[in-house]
# Entry
Amino acid sequence: MNALLRTLVVLLSLLVAVPALAAPALADVDLVKQRVAKVGVLRGEFTQEKQVAGFKNPLRSQGSFVLAQDHGVIWTTLKPFPSEVVVTRDRILSRQRDGSSRVELDGRQQPAMRSVNAIMFALMSGDAQALSAQFTVKVEALPNNGWTMQLSPRSAMLAKVFTGLALSGDRYVREVQITEANQDVTRIHFAGMRETPAQLSADEGRKFE
# Structure
């Protein structure tokens, strides 16, 4: 199963039982909100490394993404094995690029799907306000409009899976680090971000249908 899909499935299973807490009104949240761009459609590339505890070499993958605020996220892995995950408001769809396999989670059967969607968007867009519903947020301002964000689970159930998440960026989120309770660490680096074209292509739009 695609590594991103595994993370989303874990979040989904947890959020079914963990209610969203009231997000605190933090100056830290406002700082990140002011610095991160509000973009309708954002495209870019990613490289991902997962360091599994006990193994010397990390698992690596790379590909591209499309983040459309009104539709969802298209996460396309190109290497080592082509695959695609599409996250919309009501579903998560994973498929091999050659169409040989397909996994779909339907929001009508999974009432926490919207929460998973929100977290996915929040991680990629640096939405500290949304993340603070499930995580304690600590922000540090950096020069040149930069920032870092440290996230600690606010519930015991989330803490059983994640010991912490870290984000860093400027106008965009540049890096996400996820540390699991078993000490596996996933680092995702985003590059080549672009805000044009500002509309989805016909092919991209069909993937959200």
Observations:
- The domain at 3-207 is CATH 2.50.20.10 (outer membrane lipoprotein receptor (LolB), chain A).
- The helical segments are 3-15, 27-35, 113-125, 128-131, 156-159, 202-207.
- The chain has one domain: 3-207.
- Confidence is low (pLDDT under 50) at residues 9-25.
